[in-house]
Design goal:
The structure is a single chain. This protein has 430 residues and is mainly beta. It is 0% helix and 41% strand. It has strands at residues 2-5, 39-40, 51-52, 66-71, 81-83, 86-92, 99-105, 111-117, 136-137, 141-147, 152-158, 163-168, 183-185, 188-193, 210-215, 221-226, 238-241, 247-253, 257-262, 268-272, 284-286, 289-294, 302-307, 314-318, 329-331, 334-338, 343-348, 354-359, 369-371, 374-378, 383-388, 395-401, 410-411, 415-419, 423-428. The model is unreliable at 1-35 (pLDDT under 50).
């Protein structure tokens, strides 16, 4: 289903941005000397850092390195997650919008359970899908989310596939379709239910954006914080310690900018209005900077970095080759930006020097990840490009998947799980 290709040089020049590593919360896969990671439990892994310090997955891989590969019962852009010996993901029928909630055995790709949820089609962006959400998972349950214009559904299943609880969160209004992914912080399940009030067809009632938190064991609502409703935004939050001393969640949206909420109560802590366009990538933290991006299909993408302490003023602005959909990733003091048009840049932190910028090519919706000392990016045409995650540009090779891919891989020390629109595969030794 794929072919390996030799490395090829590329050239171009651009600019960069920044992102970094913040390791808060439960079991982290990035600790030096840790045992094999059996937990990649949300979009971009623990707290969204998208990086493992130790990873021996063969990159680029050969056909004999593929542990297993299976056809999915539907398509989708949402990323896979895993916990213990199970992989979970969401798929959907592109014609009927029927959802498929799926669990596979990590060792060999055997389907463990499959829930079919009837639905109905509605308008989507050409690059969206009815399964653009990434589930999250902990030791007790896996949590899925999807929507129709009438209902946003959030549901929990135990690892055996038994439904634990289900919530209907009301109507969903957007121009492009639903893409919010739930995330866990301890036993608090958070969903940024961002909706649209702009660029809607005549007669459509504007939606209401709000951040919603639930008890993950019972589904009981813990708090709801309304947010300014402009355009539907899709990033998932990251956890940090605010200067006030509170455990806080960092978000980005068009109407409120970069903002923080108290994890326990949902109370707004601060915000900085910096955006005029849609926010699709997830917010990240590098040192003392909170980073967010905005953009559009027509370009004009900008990255902003504001200080987490003090007055939350803009300390960084990148207006060339900033990402719109992909979220950047960092290794040590090096920040890697994989832009939507296939331009990859490396920026040294904290001085902001651009060490290299190269055109790799392809349209990109997947977010890059770092496996050990290797940077992995996937273009929509299925081209997986492997670069050295280093201060010098070095293309190590590529692999061509025979399918569209907009999902982000899930990593462990010895294997990688990735999803194309209609297939799931595991590379390495699960």
């Amino acid at each position: 289903m794929f072919r390996a290709t030799s490395p090829f040089p590329a050239a171009d020049k651009c600019l960069g941005l920044l992102f970094g590593l913040l390791a808060l919360g439960p079991t982290m896969a990035v600790e030096s000397g840790s045992t094999e990671t059996r937990h990649w439990g949300r979009f971009r892994g623990e707290n969204g850092v998208a990086s493992l310090e130790q990873c021996d997955v063969p990159l680029p891989w050969k056909p004999e390195d593929v542990a297993w590969e299976v056809d999915l019962p539907g398509t989708g852009n949402g990323s896979p997650v895993f916990y213990g010996d199970q992989v979970f993901l969401l798929a959907a029928d592109p014609d009927t919008a029927e959802r498929h909630l799926l669990s596979y055995r990590l060792a060999d790709g055997k389907e463990l359970w499959h829930k079919r949820i009837e639905s109905k089609p509605y308008h989507l962006h050409a690059r969206s899908s009815y399964a653009s959400c990434t589930p999250c998972v902990d030791e007790l349950a896996v949590y899925f989310c999807w929507a129709t214009p009438e209902s946003v559904i959030l549901v929990a299943y135990n690892h055996a596939g038994d439904e634990l609880w289900k919530k209907d969160l009301g109507s969903y209004i957007s121009q492009h379709g639903f893409g919010a992914s739930p995330v866990l912080f301890g036993k608090t399940l958070v969903l940024f239910n961002s909706q649209a009030a702009q660029e809607l067809p005549e007669g459509v009632t504007p939606g209401q954006s709000r951040v919603m938190a639930f008890d993950s064991e019972t589904g009981q609502e813990k708090w709801v914080t309304p947010r300014t409703t402009t355009r539907a935004c899709y990033g998932v939050p990251t956890l940090f310690k605010d200067s006030s001393g509170a455990d806080a969640l960092l978000f980005c949206n068009t109407g409120d900018g970069i903002f923080a909420l108290d994890l326990e109560t949902g109370a707004p802590l601060w915000n900085k209005k910096v955006f005029g366009k849609r926010c699709v990538s997830s917010p990240v933290i590098v040192g003392n900077l909170a980073i967010g991006t905005e953009g559009s299909g027509g370009g004009g993408n900008i990255l902003y970095g504001i200080d987490l302490d003090g007055q939350h003023e803009v300390q960084l602005e990148v207006d060339r080759s900033a990402p719109y959909v992909p979220t950047p990733v960092a290794k040590g003091s090096l920040l890697f930006l994989w832009g939507d048009a296939g331009i990859v840049s490396c920026v040294r932190i904290p001085d902001g020097d651009i060490l290299w910028s190269k055109r790799i090519g392809g349209n990109v919706s997947s977010s890059p990840v770092i496996a050990g000392d290797k940077l992995i990016g996937i273009a929509e045409d299925g081209t997986v490009t492997i670069l050295a995650a280093s201060s010098g540009f070095n293309e190590l090779g590529s692999v061509k998947l025979e399918s569209t891919c907009r999902a982000t891989p899930a990593l462990s020390e010895h294997f990688m799980v990735l999803r194309t629109d209609a297939r799931l595969m595991c590379i390495g030794k699960p």
